[in-house]
Structure formats: structure tokens, C-alpha cells
Amino acid sequence: MKVAMTVRKRVMIFAVMFVASVRQAKMTAVTISFNWRSSCSCRVRIALNLKGLDYEYTGVNLVKGEQNSPEFRKLNPLGYVPVLVDGDVLLSDSFAILLYLAEKYPQHPLLPSDLKTKAINFQVNFYFLSL
Ligand SMILES: N[C@@H](CCC(=O)N[C@@H](CS)C(=O)NCC(=O)O)C(=O)O
């Protein structure tokens, strides 16, 4: 019962953050290719919005298999969203993108400055990525 409540709470938090990120979407130099159902894509968009960065996004319809198109495979040969293009930087993998954004755009930090707390944050991230 306690576990079910925790999952429900996590889903609610995720839903609220997703709605907030969609509402704040703007146009700019940073481009992200994503799918609206992809949680990996959503967390990158949440980070872009938390940092107040303008960005342009391109939808990739995973159900229609657009991730397998030759055009998209040029961006990510593995065929996964999200993909971020920032100038001459082309990155895939949401965590790599988050770490890049954290360092390139230091405003509104995504990570705590305290090393111990930051390490715990990495631990939680890697744990969920390995599920
Ligand atoms: N480790 C990658 C995983 C990316 C990933 O699994 N993306 C899924 C959507 S959540 C995808 O693009 N799947 C393509 C497919 O299923 O063909 C990340 O964090 O970005």
C-alpha cells in the first residue's frame, strides 16, 4: 500500500512538471528531437524550461517508426530520442544531455553544489536508468 502511494505521488509530480514544460515551450537555437510519451525526452524539456532556455523542438513519432528514418538515424544511429543539437554539439542520451546543459548553462542549476548531495543525485539517476 505504501509503495502504491509513492508511485502515485511520483506520477503526479511527473505529470505536473510535464504540463509545466509543455506550457513554457519557446523557440530558439537549441533544438531537441523528442517524443511526447518519452520520459527521457520530458526530463530534458523540463531541464530546458527550468533553465529558461529558448529552444526549438521537433516531434519524432515513435509509433510511426520515425526514429528509424535515415534523417533521424543521422542524428542518432541508435534510433533513440531525445537528441539535442546546440550549435556544433550533437548529443543523445538524456542524462548526458542534462549534464551538458548543467555545465554549459549554469543559470538555475540542476544539481546541488554540495558534493555529497550531488553524488546522491547521481546515484538516484543511475539507479532509475538501470531499471
Ligand atoms: N538512455 C537513453 C534511453 C532513450 C530511450 O530509451 N528512448 C526511447 C523513448 S523513451 C526511444 O527513443 N525508443 C525508440 C524505440 O523504441 O524504437 C536516454 O536516457 O535518453
How would you concisely characterize the structure shown here?
It contains 5 helices and 4 strands.
Number of domains: 1
Order of helices and strands: HEHEHEEHH
- Terminal CA distance: 21 Å
CATH class: Alpha Beta
Shape: globular
Number of strands: 4
Rg over C-alpha atoms, rounded to the nearest angstrom = 15 Å
CATH architecture: 3-Layer(aba) Sandwich
Task: Tell me the structural class.
Answer: alpha+beta
How do the strands line up in the largest sheet?
2-1-3-4
Characterize the main sheet. 4 strands, mixed
The hetero compounds bound to this protein are: glutathione
Estimate what percentage of residues fall within beta strands.
Answer: 5-15%
Tell me the name of the CATH homologous superfamily: Glutaredoxin
Word description of this protein:
The chain has 131 residues and is α+β, with helices and mostly antiparallel strands. The protein has one domain: Glutaredoxin, CATH 3.40.30. 50% of the residues lie in helices and 14% in strands. It has five helices and four strands; from the N terminus they run H-E-H-E-H-E-E-H-H. It has helices spanning 2-23, 39-50, 70-75, 94-104, 115-129; strands spanning 30-34, 55-59, 83-86, 89-92. The chain has a four-stranded mixed β-sheet, with helices on one face. The longest helix is centred in the first third of the chain and has 22 residues, at 2-23. It is globular and about 45 Å long. The protein starts with a helix and ends with a helix. Residues 11-29 have low confidence and may be disordered. The structure holds glutathione. Glutathione binds next to helix 2 and helix 4.
